[in-house]
Amino acid sequence: MSHGFPPGLTYQSPLFSGPPTVHGVYRGVNVFADRSRNSSTWDLWDVVNLLDPEVLSWGSRHEHESTMRVAVELTGPLPYLTIANREGTNDSIAVGSDGQPPHPFDKWNVDFAHSLSIGYPPFDDRYVVSSGDIGFLRTVMRPELAQWMVSVHDRVRWQKVVFLESRVWALSSDKQLDPGHVLPLADYLIEMLHHTHPVATPAPAPGAQAFGGDTA
Amino acid sequence: MTPTPAGAAAGALPGLWPHAPDAPFLVPVPGTAEVPDELRAAGITAEGLQPAYWIGRDRFYLTATRNGLPIAWPNVTHRGGEVVRNPGIPLAGVVTVRPGVISNLRKPVEMSVDDWLTPFVDKVLLDNGPAVFLTGQYEVFLPTPDPVGLAAEIERRRQGVIRFGGWTMPDAANPPDNLRGGGPIDGRPVYGMDAQPTFRRITALFAEPTWQPHTPAPIGSLRPVGEPPSAPRPPRNVPLPESVPDQVWNLGGANSGLQVMATVRRMVLGPAPLPRIPSLSLERFPPEPHPFMSVPLARLSVVRAGQLSGLPPRWAVRGLAPDTRTEIRLTMADGPAVWLWGPTHEWVIPVPDDEAANALVAGIRSRQEVGMLFPVALSSGPERSAWQLSELRPVDGPQGRALPPTPAYAPVEPTIVPPGTWQPTGGDSR
To answer: Region entry Disordered: which residue ranges (chain B) (predicted)?
Structure first.
């Protein structure tokens, strides 16, 4: 069942064995998307929320909302890097409660302790880039990528965090896992790869066209 | 309370006020000092600390002194999880300045101090005697043997802020209701010395204290302002911050144990050798209390080389580093110096020669440009926290981002040296 996704992408929603996922080949690139709750356990608030959706409007939403992630696969393992939207970040939290940098999936915790400005003020006023490797950050965050991201900042309402971890160039959002939301974000990721340094290259998908090709 | 010679305000910094009429001065108050948690964890106690009001050009705050010297606050401290920025109560937000005498208090009133106001004072004590009564957002009694003189001096500074403006002006331009003193009298708002003190807080606690007002004295003349305006000039070819080395200058002469260091984001002053400050510092106390003073470069508007001449002998600016123990004493002598001024900070640094002065000015200006284009991302970082003041915010133009122009209310000469002793030698380097 395609659920409206183009050919090549498969939607799966196992009833008891995990979150819904979308995977397959899109524009010649291996794409993966899922949507999962940010907290792994159920507690009293979840029961209350089930009974009364109005509680969501004032309850502890942040711990209980879910995150949609869209990712493309890269060729090689790369250092850790995140790009966080300043909107909705809480910059009083520079490190997690355990003293470690916050996990990149956690959009409310941005790793300010390892963040660097890239020297393009319109970008730095909107995003926070963090990486443990300054040289890699300077390599990936080229001026043309920053200028492109600023130019589409208002057009694509994405995401809190773009993150790069090992072989995955990914992006998180609080939207639903449907084609109207997944495909623009996948397009955004693929276009980003056009503007960044070739060190971040998508892995060749089996039987797919060249990188960046349109879907059939 | 320290008795002082007639004609001088109580607790005036010895040798500094009233010879430099716009310099900050101190008014000690009886009370209990404390130290922030970070210092307490490092084994520093409040023993020997004396609470005092630090009264500056446009603001005042409660701090502690040791041997008559004020503690240099870090401009941002974290206390109980809250961030304390821009310490100080704006003089522009003071509504009444009134000299008089308190009597009929049966015993001293212990007034606890809000943690937000100061990390260094726990309680202040109000007792019978001559005092200056300030109302505004906070009601403040300044005990002094010369309430008329002290009130006139505070009122002079307050009038200066009201006339020339300042970063604290928004507090006066749009005061909340509790800044309006006792309310309207004869159809006009209570303002300045015309107002009568209200005993809001005290009468709520104790019966029948008496306030005998004195006749206010006329205020002195206001200091000149008016820095020449400069056009914003976006920098070109700014290096990456990780490639900018720290630059250290040894101060010679009478200050020969002191060093000045310009890092990418900060100016540091202290006894040599100065330790490195992490460039990604989150602006809180380091684990070890630091025996030096520092100022973020983004908070400096005027960076100028000049010449000091005609100073009184043994003129010095003294203060305690934020560890509350290390005294930093800058002995001023006739000769080249660098003047650093910002809305919240002012330093005058005597340097050995003109070459060092020009190098210091150029080094600070170039690092300001680096910090402007590569700020720390955290909004409480040295740059973005400074940018919360509109006067310090960079200017974005079609050519790019440029350092902000000097505020119109900037003084034309340093306020912490006597008037007329400063001559600029070099123009501003930007």
So the answer is: 213-238, 394-430
- Which chain A residues have a beta carbon less than 8 Å from that of B377? 91, 112, 115-117, 124, 128-130
Tens-digit pLDDT profile for residues B316-358: 888 898 888 899 999 999 999 999 999 888 999 999 999 999 9
**What is the rounded CA–CA span in Å between residue B430 and residue B427?**
9
Which pair of structure tokens corresponds to residue B31? 């009370």
In chain B, the residue whose alpha carbon lies closest to the alpha carbon of A114 is B280
Is B280 in Cβ contact with A121 (below 8 Å)?
Answer: no
For B400, the closest chain A residue by CA position comes to A121
* Residues B64/B51, Cβ–Cβ less than 8 Å: yes
Q: Which tokens belong to B308? A: 């000091």
Q: Nearest C-alpha of chain B: how many angstroms from A112?
A: 6
Q: What is the mean pLDDT of residues A93-101?
A: 43
Closest CA to B322 of B26, B72, B54: B72
Mean pLDDT, all residues of chain B:
79
pLDDT tens-digit map of A38-90: 655 555 655 655 565 554 444 444 444 677 888 888 887 888 888 887 775 54
Mutate to test the interface with A, among B82, B240, B370 (most CBs of A within 10 A): B240
Do residues B333 and B254 make contact, with C-beta atoms less than 8 angstroms apart? yes
B positions 93-132 inside 8 Å of A (CB): none
Return all residues near B53 (Cβ < 8 A) that are at least 6 apart.
B26, B27, B29, B60, B61, B62, B63, B140, B142
Task: Give the side-chain half-sphere CA count within 13 A for B132.
Answer: 29
d(CA B205, CA B84): 29
Determine, for residues B394 and A121 on separate chains, whether the beta-carbon distance falls below 8 Å: yes
Q: Is the dihedral of CA A150, A151, A157, A161 positive or negative?
A: negative
Return the ∠ at Cα B128 (arms to B122 and B130), rounded to 5°.
Answer: 100
C-alpha distances out from residue B272 to B35, B188, B278, B320, Å:
25, 57, 18, 16
Q: Give me the interface pTM, i.e. the ipTM.
A: 0.75
A143-151 helix and A179-195 helix, angle to the nearest 10 degrees: 150
Give the pLDDT mean for A133-154. 89
Cα B15 → chain centroid: 18
Neighboring chain B residues of A121 at a CB cutoff of 8 Å: 373, 394, 396, 400-401
Q: Three-class SS of residue A109?
A: coil
**Which residues of chain B does A114 touch, with a Cβ-Cβ cutoff of 8 Å?**
280
pLDDT at residue B287 is higher than 70 = no
Contact B261, B246 (CB under 8 A): yes
State pTM to two decimals: 0.81
Interface contact A4, partner B, CB < 8 A: no
Domains in chain B, ordered, with CATH?
25-213 (no CATH), 241-424 (2.30.29)
Kindly determine whether residue A117 and residue B373, on different chains, have CB atoms separated by under 8 Å.
Answer: yes
> How near does any CA of chain A get to the CA of B281, in Å?
8
